């Protein structure tokens, strides 16, 4: 039987994907990328999907990077194909219509950091370590790091990290805006459970519209982006979700979405 490289757990429409190669510190290889893309293709089609959480197995690593053993003997053409596969897969994660959250425990380096950057936000345990150390291997980030990192933390900080290859701890990652929150590792699981309940309890159409407004609006001029927000706001009034949510507020009860 082949190794199961991604574990899938679901609760109330919130799907948790756990990359499971703990002996390799959950490094991304072709098998992981192929399975992740397959799963994401399935999730794209689901109207009942509320959110996706992604993490790594074990306490040592979220994803320690791309698999160096697999990469070291690649030709330029093979390297291009490998990077293209990774970019395609990570883009699918980024463009899911629901919130995607990285739960970062331990090493989040290279391809792991690039995976986290494609998520809507990231939460880190206090033992997390971040970095883009590719230059130490004689290459550059190839899974989107040179583009998503400056968009997240600014070009000066991105160049600092990419050209030195230095690693930063969770608190510095929080300071520069790479992650949203830092907590003790022992609390990360409880946070994931609470986040699952919170995301599952919100209006699903409103959550999707919120993500669309932010992502699509960032690519437009302000006036066009505000027009998009107005259109999506009005769209929320076209279904039963808004009626239930506002009726529940007036009636002082929890909405049933």
TrEMBL record:
Q: Which GO terms describe its biological process?
A: fatty acid beta-oxidation
Which Pfam families does this UniProt record tie to the protein? ECH_1
**One annotated GO molecular function:** hydro-lyase activity
- Quote the InterPro entries the UniProt record gives: ClpP/crotonase-like_dom_sf (IPR029045), Enoyl-CoA_hydra/iso (IPR001753), Enoyl-CoA_hydra_C (IPR014748)
Q: Transport: present as a keyword of the record?
A: no
User: What is the superkingdom listed in this entry's lineage?
Assistant: Bacteria
Sorted UniProt keywords: Lyase
Q: Does the keyword Coiled coil apply?
A: no
Which family is annotated?
Belongs to the enoyl-CoA hydratase/isomerase family.
User: What is this protein's record name?
Assistant: Enoyl-CoA hydratase/isomerase family protein
């Amino acid at each position: 039987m082949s190794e199961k490289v991604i574990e899938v757990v679901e609760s109330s429409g919130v799907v948790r994907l756990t990359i499971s190669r703990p002996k390799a510190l959950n490094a991304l290889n072709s098998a992981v990328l192929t399975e992740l893309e397959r799963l994401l293709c399935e999730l794209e089609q689901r109207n009942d999907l509320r959110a996706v959480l992604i993490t790594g197995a074990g306490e040592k690593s979220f994803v320690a990077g791309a698999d160096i053993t697999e990469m070291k003997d690649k030709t330029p053409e093979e390297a291009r194909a490998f990077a293209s596969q990774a970019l395609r897969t990570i883009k699918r994660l980024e463009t899911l219509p629901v919130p995607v959250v990285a739960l970062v425990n331990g090493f989040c380096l290279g391809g792991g950091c690039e995976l986290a950057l494609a998520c809507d936000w990231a939460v880190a345990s206090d033992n997390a370590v971040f970095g883009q150390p590719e230059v130490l291997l004689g290459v550059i980030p190839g899974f989107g790091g040179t583009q998503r990192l400056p968009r997240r933390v600014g070009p000066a900080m991105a160049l600092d990290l990419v050209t030195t290859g230095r690693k930063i701890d969770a608190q510095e990652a929080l300071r520069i805006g790479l992650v949203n929150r830092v907590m003790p590792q022992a609390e990360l699981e409880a946070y994931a459970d609470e986040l699952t309940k919170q995301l599952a309890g919100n209006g699903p159409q409103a959550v999707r519209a919120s993500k669309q407004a932010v992502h699509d609006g960032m690519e437009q001029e302000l006036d066009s982006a505000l027009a998009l927000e107005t259109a999506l706001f009005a769209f929320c009034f076209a279904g039963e979700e808004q009626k239930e949510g506002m009726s529940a507020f007036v009636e002082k009860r929890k909405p049933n979405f």
